Prior knowledge:
Radius of gyration of chain A: 12 Å
Number of helices of chain A: 2
Oligomer: heterodimer
Number of strands of chain B: 13
Shape of chain A: globular
Largest sheet of chain B: 5 strands, parallel
CATH topology of the domain at 68-173 and 256-302 in chain B: Rossmann fold
CATH class of chain A: Mainly Beta
CATH topology of chain A: SH3 type barrels
Number of strands of chain A: 5
Strand content of chain A: 25-35%
CATH architecture of the domain at 68-173 and 256-302 in chain B: 3-Layer(aba) Sandwich
Low-confidence stretches of chain B: none
Strand content of chain B: 15-25%
Shape of chain B: globular
Structural class of chain A: alpha+beta
CATH architecture of chain A: Roll
Number of domains of chain A: 1
CATH class of the domain at 68-173 and 256-302 in chain B: Alpha Beta
Mean pLDDT of chain A: 90
Order of helices and strands of chain A: EEEEEHH
Distance between the termini of chain A: 19 Å
Low-confidence stretches of chain A: none
Amino acid sequence: MCLGIPGEVVTLDVDRPGMATVNVGGARRQVNVMLIEEDGVQPGDWVLIHVGFALAKIDEEEARLTLSHLEEMGQAYRDELRALAESRID
Amino acid sequence: MRFVDEFRDREKAQALAASIATLCEPGRRYGLMEICGGHTHTIYKHGIEDYLPEGVQLVHGPGCPVCVIPMGRVDDAIWIAEQEGVTLTSFGDLLRVPGGRGSFLDAKARGADIRMVYSPLDSLRIARENPDRRVVFMAIGFETTTPSTAMTVLRAAAEGLENFSIFCNHVTIIPALQAILASPDIQIDGFIGPGHVSTVIGCEPYRFIAEERGRPFVVAGFEPLDILQSIQMLLLQLHEGRSEVENQYTRVVPWEGNQRALRAIDEVMEPRPTFEWRGLGWIPDSAMRVREKYARFDAERIFTLPANRVADPPACQCGGVLRGTIKPWECRVFGTACTPETPIGTCMVSSEGACAAYYNFGRFSRQRIRQATSA
């Protein structure tokens, strides 16, 4: 729950304002991007995701650092990814 | 040393460690509190304490939301889950947290409909798909998760959803820090500030700590080098007699925070007059509740909760750990009666709790611990 997971924005959903398809750990997930809309979020941007919402835009290097940190966390990160995989938000 | 694989990073770490050593006055003790459980995790996982001079002591703060939830609130949530037609949804982190009548998992085994979700928006979907169920989201967390809960309530209101509510247990970090600073036995010279919470609230709210309480404050990232650099920045301030708020984690944290997120929180929630924290007791204005305007989404208004207070188990010393007055391994039941598999206290449940982090990774600091316990 406290883990911020990086993801790369693939597309902004035209039909559902404020939602985006984001590549997270190789899987495509729906993420709410309304909280960072004022920063002008675009496909290709990296975002930090907390419980289904993008909270901050980050650069690719930060995303890489964060991912390696998360992978080192082991079980806690695997649990979070599993929960994310089961998540279906719209 | 499993610090970082790359040589240049180890060099950087050693350079930082050397700088830290030169900034410490011989014989002086420096108590630095890392507020966030994520930082506690990094510190133990990477043996950060092994890089620090003996005088620098890291004190683990209250920034693990799972760890600070009092048992009475867990019992209230279970009571809600046991009501006719109710589905309680919760982050997975909370499932094993013991209340006075067991955990969510125990209640589930007794037949309660408790479901794990990744996002509050998942709860919303469950409510939509199950119009005959009353779906209650167990909302917990600091300011990193509060905006998501607020946005979800706004969405439920926009959709006119009538079978969704939240049991709001969101806490705020600033009043908790005020409470810690007000305690008479405080031995903290500076703060390693929370990275993700600051993404939302920004750096400005910490100014009183630096300016009025004279403690340097550095918002920090989660890499081992981030922590070491933040410690170096704190010691440099102390060395130069400065007391300021600095942002080490500029690559993620904007000084002004996320204004959109703060507006969402303010629209849906307001501070409670007081809230009980495990280990810290009752702290004024330290948690959020749903505003009257959104009363129909507030489980505390929909249900008449038992709201029984439950004392922590006498053997459990989570309170001392959360206030930083004892180290995890100094607790009577640490690693014997209380382990991550059979936790007595919340600090052992969450992977970001100080006890679980130390239990899992403390082997990297063995030598230090021997010194500390034989002293």
